[in-house]
Amino acid sequence: MGDAGGGTMRRRRACSCSKGDFLPEESFRSWGNYWGALKETPARLRDRVLSRSLETTELHEVKAQSGHEMKRTLTWWDLMWFGIGAVIGAGIFVLTGQETREGAGPAVVLSYVVSGVSAMLSVFCYTEFAVEIPVAGGSFAYLRVELGDFVAFIAAGNILLEYVIGGAAVARSWTSYFATLLNHDPSDFVITVHSLAKNYNELDPIAVGVCCIICAFAVLSTKGSSRLNYIASIVHILVIIFIIVAGLTKANANNYTPFAPFGARGVFKASAVLFFAYVGFDAVSTMAEETKNPARDIPIGLVGSMVVVTVAYCVLVITLCLMQPYDQIDVDAPFSLAFKAVGMDWAKYVVAFGALKGMTTVLLVGAVGQARYLTHIARTHMMPPWFAKVNEKTGTPVNATVTMLAATAVIAFFTKLNILSNLLSISTLFIFMLVAVALLVRRYYVSGVTKPADRNKLIICISLIVGSSIATAAYWGLSEHGWIGYVITVPIWFLATVALRVFVPHARDPKLWGVPLVPWLPSASIAINIFLLGSIDRASFERFGLWTALLLLYYFFFGLHASYDTAKESAETRAKAGVKWKNVEEGHVSSTTHAGPGSEAPAIPST
């Protein structure tokens, strides 16, 4: 009885949550410890800023924090359909009407091309990292290895924001198209509460229900989610083919005049908003840990899916603008009402069905990806380690999945699509820019190998590339008709990239698969992403700044101390095992902080 009772007590204890599941680190074991940790904040912050994780740490030690391995069940076929399913959704079916009618006119196809080029450059950067560091953390893990803990955390917060907002936007669009499918107006199933603030007073209970159903699929099995995804994606592709073929039978070339009524500025402003339509492919990189052969499967899956998506988008918007004059295209349901306008009212049901299929797969892949991001972030203890637990039976991160989709459901319940789409684009473009910078650092800097003079040249070149790109974007935003600024900023970007290619020696070549034309492709990715950021409205930047400030508050009071203690504990464990200090960290760490964040190398080595 005693044994049985003890076993029962142990089982209950295993199923419960305690402070140790969320804040198990030394700094949080007592108020005295916490106060002492806060007093060391400047020294600890310096350590976290200057320390970089090693690939071996991400691949082995950090993964071990989850307790159980994720199951390697995915192939390039799964990844390609995950990529298609993750991307083709609310963006093309919702925002196209708004940006065609009010932003770019028929030249919206060029907006999709610009956004597609930017996304493809980012895909190349993500692919090299995903092949070399196949872990669930995606861009968070890549940035931790190349740019250090602090930059990785800021990116991590925006990654989580990107997924929550993206999922919420798609869930609300799902409700609109569901209403259309049932022959209702898009807003019929939304409950308006006049006592709440504008843009937050249209409540959407159906979006919450959809999030709950998606959560169940994402929790049960990654492979099962994959099967559901590519079946739904195939149906979605067939519907897209129907829209193109049926729409072109009603084409009128006169509708393409004028082609660009809002000029070049309209094309690029629309590109910044329509980048939302390409968001989601980065979720595929988080599945590298569950891929059978990352070196082969990830490049085929990521690049192949992005090529299919870009071509599909361009053909779809060409078809739409040939069917109807741009100033008559509906803002909320452009494809459905375009068919109605040309006498094919029945086709709107096919369009609504296809849109629902697409948005369902976007939600599913987003749920799988966002949970894996949170899992890897929690493995480093920047977020509570409770989120890192992988369920032994399903092989999925249940805690992270449920938490992220609960946050998505809450945002979707209150917030309108136009608020969500701009804020989402800022977070995504910011992260993609950082990943491109990290790739340049990866190729041209290796601690202990790169000479100090070459390191300084690298810093100068990257600073000029980023600085000239910011200047170009700022000039674009502030000067509507000027051109002199571009004569200065564009050559600086070009010469900085040339200098990086000519004067800074390569420090590392990719082992399995690498981005071609380095440094040109990563440098172009930085420039385009920053340029598109310059086309986003001020209010969205204010919301982005507020979110970043909240992230910093959390980091200074919790995340910094938790990750510092975890790294210190890892270093001490290695020291007891007889591992020499220089193998734990490749460079100088302040003796004041006594910090040897396990298996980490300084972001800026001592000279």
TrEMBL record:
<feature type="transmembrane region" description="Helical">
    <location>
        <begin position="512"/>
        <end position="532"/>
    </location>
</feature>
<keyword id="KW-1133">Transmembrane helix</keyword>
<dbReference type="Pfam" id="PF13906">
    <property type="entry name" value="AA_permease_C"/>
</dbReference>
<dbReference type="GO" id="GO:0005313">
    <property type="term" value="F:L-glutamate transmembrane transporter activity"/>
</dbReference>
<keyword id="KW-0029">Amino-acid transport</keyword>
<feature type="transmembrane region" description="Helical">
    <location>
        <begin position="458"/>
        <end position="477"/>
    </location>
</feature>
<feature type="domain" description="Cationic amino acid transporter C-terminal">
    <location>
        <begin position="513"/>
        <end position="563"/>
    </location>
</feature>
<feature type="transmembrane region" description="Helical">
    <location>
        <begin position="300"/>
        <end position="326"/>
    </location>
</feature>
<dbReference type="GO" id="GO:0005886">
    <property type="term" value="C:plasma membrane"/>
</dbReference>
<feature type="transmembrane region" description="Helical">
    <location>
        <begin position="79"/>
        <end position="97"/>
    </location>
</feature>
<dbReference type="GO" id="GO:0015189">
    <property type="term" value="F:L-lysine transmembrane transporter activity"/>
</dbReference>
<protein>
    <recommendedName>
        <fullName>Cationic amino acid transporter C-terminal domain-containing protein</fullName>
    </recommendedName>
</protein>
<keyword id="KW-0472">Membrane</keyword>
<feature type="transmembrane region" description="Helical">
    <location>
        <begin position="426"/>
        <end position="446"/>
    </location>
</feature>
<feature type="transmembrane region" description="Helical">
    <location>
        <begin position="109"/>
        <end position="129"/>
    </location>
</feature>
<feature type="transmembrane region" description="Helical">
    <location>
        <begin position="395"/>
        <end position="414"/>
    </location>
</feature>
<feature type="transmembrane region" description="Helical">
    <location>
        <begin position="544"/>
        <end position="564"/>
    </location>
</feature>
<feature type="region of interest" description="Disordered">
    <location>
        <begin position="587"/>
        <end position="607"/>
    </location>
</feature>
<dbReference type="GO" id="GO:0006865">
    <property type="term" value="P:amino acid transport"/>
</dbReference>
<dbReference type="InterPro" id="IPR002293">
    <property type="entry name" value="AA/rel_permease1"/>
</dbReference>
<feature type="transmembrane region" description="Helical">
    <location>
        <begin position="483"/>
        <end position="500"/>
    </location>
</feature>
<feature type="transmembrane region" description="Helical">
    <location>
        <begin position="203"/>
        <end position="221"/>
    </location>
</feature>
<feature type="transmembrane region" description="Helical">
    <location>
        <begin position="268"/>
        <end position="288"/>
    </location>
</feature>
<dbReference type="Pfam" id="PF13520">
    <property type="entry name" value="AA_permease_2"/>
</dbReference>
<comment type="similarity">
    <text>Belongs to the amino acid-polyamine-organocation (APC) superfamily. Cationic amino acid transporter (CAT) (TC 2.A.3.3) family.</text>
</comment>
<feature type="transmembrane region" description="Helical">
    <location>
        <begin position="150"/>
        <end position="171"/>
    </location>
</feature>
<dbReference type="InterPro" id="IPR029485">
    <property type="entry name" value="CAT_C"/>
</dbReference>
<keyword id="KW-0813">Transport</keyword>
<feature type="transmembrane region" description="Helical">
    <location>
        <begin position="228"/>
        <end position="248"/>
    </location>
</feature>
<keyword id="KW-0812">Transmembrane</keyword>
<feature type="transmembrane region" description="Helical">
    <location>
        <begin position="346"/>
        <end position="374"/>
    </location>
</feature>
